[in-house]
Each structure stands twice: as C-alpha cells, then as structure tokens.
Amino acid sequence: MSIQVGEKAPVISLYDTDKNQVSLGGTDKNTVILFFPLAFTGVCTAELCNIRDNIGLYNNTNAQVLGVSVDSLFVLGKFKGEQNLNFPLLSDFNKVAAKAYGVLYETFPAFEMQGVSKRAAFVVDNSGVVRYAEVCPTPGDLPNFTAIQECLASL
C-alpha cells in the first residue's frame, strides 16, 4: 500500500544526476515527488517535459520538484540533458524509495520487468507530511497536474 495523505513522508536520500545526495522529505521546502517508471519512454518523457514547461507554476508556490526513477544516475543524466529538464532527477536504483512509498511493481506490465516503480505523485509539505498522494492506475496514465498545483497553492 502506498503512503497516504496525512502520513509522515519517509526521509530517504538518493543521488541526483550531479552525484549529490538529495533528501526526499524532511526538508524546509514543499516538495513534489514524481516517481516515473523508466527514462526515455514516451509517457515518462511527456510527463517530465510537462513539468519542465510549467516549472514556473511550481516555483511560484515555493516548491521543489524531484523526479525519481529506478534508472541509474548516468542514464538519468543523459535523459535530463537530452530533454533539457530543469529540475533534479534522482536515481532509486536500489528501489529503497519506491518500496518505502509503496509504489514498486512486482512485475512491470510491459516486458515482465521486475523492480520498476509505478507512476506516482506526492506532495510533501515543509514539515514532512504528505499532503497529496496519487498512484496512477497504469503506466500510461499521467498524474493530475492541476490537483498537484491546487494542493501546492493551498499550503
């Protein structure tokens, strides 16, 4: 079961594409955490490019956006560069965050891959409490960006 609204977010550190450790929770900023299955796939690219193109909406609510995938930080670095993404991508290669947030597929629907994260979105407020939680029903579904922005505006 995934983390629910009102629960404390797990505090987990992952590496970003610049090889820095970044915390998923327990920070002094509101945070949008976007789990996505795999870099270089069509829906993931569309999702993250939507965030890139609308990053001002998140910046205006004093929120940081973090993309999280089980891909290596090297793959994510190439993906971030090719798509000109303007927010950090974090490698959850060991699947610690996906497990803690309850968003890890046992078997990914495509190609029977094991250990891929579900597409999910969480808003964690600056006190570490989950204020929005959405796990998409299928990997082809996108999070509700409007609901995420409304949640951020209410914080």
Kindly describe this structure.
The protein starts with 12 loop residues before the first strand and ends with a helix. 39% of the residues are buried. It has a single domain (13-154), classed as Glutaredoxin (3-Layer(aba) Sandwich), CATH 3.40.30.10. The protein is built from 5 helices and 7 strands, in the order E-E-E-H-H-E-H-E-H-E-E-H. The protein is globular, with a radius of gyration of 14 Å. The protein has a 7-stranded mixed sheet. Helices cover 28% and strands 22% of the residues.
What are the defining features of this structure?
globular, single chain, seven-stranded mixed sheet, alpha/beta, 155 residues, Glutaredoxin, 28% helix
Mean pLDDT comes to 93
* Oligomeric state of this protein: single chain
Distance between the termini: 25 Å
Q: pLDDT below 50 for ≥5 consecutive residues: which ranges? A: none
Give the helix/strand layout.
Layout: E1 13-16, E2 21-23, E3 30-35, H1 42-53, H2 55-59, E4 63-69, H3 73-83, E5 89-91, H4 96-101, E6 120-124, E7 130-135, H5 145-154
Parallel strand pairs: 3-4, 4-5
Antiparallel strand pairs: 1-2, 1-5, 3-6, 6-7
